[in-house]
Amino acid sequence: MNKNKNLKNKPKFNTYWIYSLIVIFFISTYFIGGNEATSSSKNINITSFERFLNKGEIKNVTVINKNLAQVTLQRDALNSPDHKIANSTNILGQKNINGPHYVFEIGNLELFQNKLEDAEKKGIQFNYDFKTVENKFFDYILGFLPLLILIGLWFFFMKRMSGGAGGGSQIFSIGKSKAKLFDEKTDIKITFKDVAGLEGAKEEVQEIVDFLKNPTKYTKLGGKIPKGALLVGLPGTGKTLLAKAVAGEAKVPFFSLSGSDFVEMFVGVGASRVRDLFKQAKEKSPAIIFIDEIDAIGRARGKSNMTGGNDERENTLNQLLTEMDGFGTNTNVIVVAATNRADVLDKALMRAGRFDRQIYVDLPDLNERKEIFKVHLKPIKISKGLDTDFLAKQTPGFSGADIANVCNEAALIAARKSKKSVNRQDFLDAVDRIVGGLEKKNKIITESEKKTIAFHEAGHATVSWMLEHAAPLVKVTIVPRGQSLGAAWYLPEERQIVKPEQILDEMCAALGGRAAEKVIFNNISTGALSDLEKVTKQARSMVTVYGLSDKIGNLTYYDSSGQNDYGFTKPYSDVTAQVIDKEISSIIENQYQRAIKLLKKHKNKLIELADFLLEKEVIFKEDLVRIYGERPFDIKAAIKESKSKK
């Protein structure tokens, strides 16, 4: 027992000891290779040497390597008070009688030699000599210095590639898995209670949790749990958080890594890391392996393969397929992966027995956004009466990560204004900051440009106000934000399906800005670029994707699997292409003329709204109600709702 304890406490070998020994070796070699006699000599300057020389107290001068002079005194001079230091004993109690007694640097060799010759001419008796001392051992070591440098660089780069900071064993760990292990007792504290929304996805993964908690419940009846679960969804929807919650609920070890962690410049490293990962997971089973962004290694093989059949990424994918198909249900190891691009994954990875369960993590709806806001508002000091329902309605299409960003940005805005709490306006400013960008009030805009922008934005607001299916307006501004010179905020209705009249109304509202420029100035500008891009995509989708065009019919050229890569070819003939182009152009032009007709009908109110916008720079829904009155469609809807309640 004590023996094992001593082995456990034994310090690990560290490569820094090797570096220290090498440095000590070179330093000691330098001093050992030098002249040992200089160690007992005292340092003097050349002025003292000349004084001793003129007194006749010097017996011998030896110049070493043309820069260092060793001086030996006469035997009688040692008893002089001037040379007590030279005649003192060393640490061993021995006196330096034979010399050399002094040492100094001579400086210019020619001048020093002239001084010695002048002293000889004066009749001073002494001897001098010039010697060259070679440190052969040190020169021998210097010959191996380039090799030692190369070895040191090899050690350094191998340690960097293996991801280690120290320890000689890490040099050989380049093929080891880079997965980070989260211990179920200390590291994983996230449960389903911490994951707001995602109710459908949580129900899907609950079965995985039940299996890891009580596997015999399923295996005794002959059932098999899915070996792999693939979380598919847009960025920021909470795929990684959901995987951690699964591990936290199941109370099992959680191996987490990214798909790019398998990729390395050396051939075979990725496959080796896959083998090591599954080996570690089996040893700690039941366990969960979570691979984030699996499309980094799981892309379909054979597409755009420019590196040949021996591609490192394909080797890694092949090893992953083998490992997932190799271990049985009794190992209690489940692979959970996440990706934003399930359409590009290899079919072999998606087949039954591997990732045979796909869990779609959608953007949160209204109620789910409300729950997410409650989670992220806990650490924030909010003002009393802040309505989370209102915040959820103001953030349609926001993901969980976007909502977290809104809460953080609102807190920063409130702190910038030296507030004690975060109120409703701070959250609205945060949404504007994230959606539209930072305000640029100091941007130089001419009066004519400002007027054009005002009528452009007023055109959007007017057309959307007059159309039944257009999104209701929230706010309009002509203050530049980000790359836009003006902006209008709408509150779109959350729909699961969209009808043609709804798409056409949205297109008409988007073209209202350019239509207003045409009605007021009888001219158009480049300010409608983003609007044109939006309506062109909508019109093309109506014709080629959703089959909403009478001339094309009930056809779609969209491939949801993503397996058909048409490249430069088209899935339709040239004649059909011409029909598609004409139909797209006709749809957009009809909605543009429709917007012009609406604005001509309400031209006086359009001018009033634009002038008010030029004065205030920012207007809200209440201002449109004051100018145009309530939307007729809203009045009808309110009457219909009141009758239904009765």
Question: Average pLDDT across residues?
Answer: 77
- Could you tell me the CATH topology label of the largest domain: Methane Monooxygenase Hydroxylase, Chain G, domain 1
Q: What's the name of the CATH homologous superfamily of the largest domain?
A: Peptidase M41
Helix content: 40-55%
Radius of gyration: 42 Å
User: What's the domain count?
Assistant: 4
Percentage beta strand: 5-15%
Structural class: alpha/beta
Overall outline: elongated
Strand runs, count: 14
Give the N-terminus to C-terminus distance in angstroms.
84 Å
CATH class of the largest domain: Mainly Alpha
Task: Give the oligomer, counting copies of the same chain as homo and different chains as hetero.
Answer: single chain
Placed side by side, the strands forming the largest sheet appear as 6-8-9-10-7-11
- The CATH architecture of the largest domain would be Up-down Bundle
- What profile does the largest beta sheet have? 6 strands, mixed
Written description of the protein model:
- The protein has 25 helices and 14 strands.
- Strands 6-8-9-10-7-11 form a six-stranded mixed beta sheet. A five-stranded mixed beta sheet has the order 1-4-3-2-5, covered by helices on one side.
- It is an alpha/beta fold and 646 residues long.
Describe the secondary-structure layout.
Elements (H helix, E strand, L loop, with lengths): L1 H8 L5 H19 L8 E2 L2 H9 L3 E7 L3 E6 L28 E4 L3 H13 L5 E5 L4 H8 L1 H17 L18 E3 L16 H15 L2 H4 L8 E6 L5 H12 L3 E5 L10 H15 L3 E6 L2 H4 L13 H15 L6 E7 L7 H4 L6 E5 L4 H11 L11 H6 L6 H17 L7 H13 L10 H20 L6 E5 L9 E4 L9 H11 L1 H10 L7 H16 L29 H28 L1 H14 L1 E3 H8 L3 H14 L1
Parallel strand pairs: 1-4, 2-5, 7-10, 7-11, 8-9, 9-10
Antiparallel strand pairs: 2-3, 3-4, 6-8, 12-13, 12-14
Helix pairs in contact: 2-5, 7-9, 10-12, 14-16, 16-17, 18-19, 18-20, 18-23, 19-21, 19-22, 20-22, 21-22
